[in-house]
Amino acid sequence: MSHLRSPIPSSKGGSCDAYCAGRRAPSAQQPPLDVELADFRLVAENAPEILQDLDEKIVLAKEMLDNLVRARSQAESHLADAKSLIHPMRSLPYEVVAEIFSHCVPTWTMNNASTHSLDPRLAPWTLTRVCFRWRHIALSLPNLWTYIGLDF
């Protein structure tokens, strides 16, 4: 079997061609020598078992890869959850969040005729859709809801 030419590199960095340099390559034009015939028969006998073994290893490797991909996805999810839970915005006092919110909404002094206060894509409406805490804070601040601007 060692005298067959193989395009597959060996684990030593070279190829089987260098190892098999002293052997003649099988040719479709010349029948194998009697000495080579025994080796070819041995390859033909063992090849199905070797292929089956490799197929089983491939199945196991695919299962392992699937498990690793699932584990990585779970780890990413846990990381995102942890980052969300420890974000500094979650620990700001009520008063600070309320002050920030008050700067997000238009006021009478802005005199902005293009602002339509009932647009759900603008503050204060958007502030109520971030999380339960923000909704509670936004709804409890009357100054966020005192401006009514309509575009006629």
Explain what the structure shows:
- The chain is rod-shaped.
- The chain contains 4 helices and no strands.
- The termini are far apart.
- The longest helix has 52 residues, at 34-85.
- It has helices spanning 16-19, 34-85, 94-102, 132-139.
- It has 152 residues and is an all-alpha fold.
Strand content of the residues, in percent? under 5%
The tally of helices reads 4
Q: Which value, in Å, is the CA radius of gyration?
A: 37 Å
Task: Tell me the span between the first and last alpha carbons.
Answer: 89 Å
Mean pLDDT: 79
Low-pLDDT regions: 1-22
Secondary structure class reads mainly alpha
Q: What is the global morphology?
A: rod-shaped
Tally of DSSP β-strands: 0
Largest β sheet strand count, sense and barrel closure: none
Helix amount: 40-55%
H/E element sequence: HHHH
Topology record:
Elements: H1 16-19, H2 34-85, H3 94-102, H4 132-139
Distinctive features:
single chain; 152 residues; mainly alpha; 4 helices; 48% helix; rod-shaped
Summary, kept brief:
The chain has 152 residues and is mostly helical. The chain contains 4 helices and no strands. The N terminus is likely disordered.
